[in-house]
Amino acid sequence: MTTPLTAPNRAPWPPIVYLAAIAVSIVLLIVYPLPWIEGPLNDILFAAGWLLAAAGAFIGIAAVRVMHKAKTTIMPNRVSEHLVTSGPFSFTRNPIYLGNTMITLGIGLIVGSIWFLLAGLIAAFIVEKLTIRPEEKHLEARFGKRYRDYAARVRRWL
User: Is a pLDDT exceeding 60 seen at residue 4?
Assistant: First the structure.
């Protein structure tokens, strides 16, 4: 059981998971490229990919700024000092992880690779199991009813 003074994780998993997903996607794209949509829809998906990646970067940067302003850590292997519920945390409990997932999916649409789309979804699943669930237990132990009320009104992803 997580106590209020115990960090939720021993390692900062999410950056490693998303970078590994991108690296594996690049290797698979080179070694085993899969067919992609042709024609005008490809151009639409390319533009949507840039928008998705830019939105993901914006959400992630905004979340880091809000956390920095609140003087709490962004590292999942450190104890949270404050419960942040403003900015992007007002519509998702995990804006940094959401942003990383959006960037990975956006890259897939930009380069036209199903591998990035699959890897982005798998990375999100892994991050939820390795990081988000332990963080939620940590935040509930640390902030109690304030966190439970927040979790009841704001979704984990979207």
Answer: no
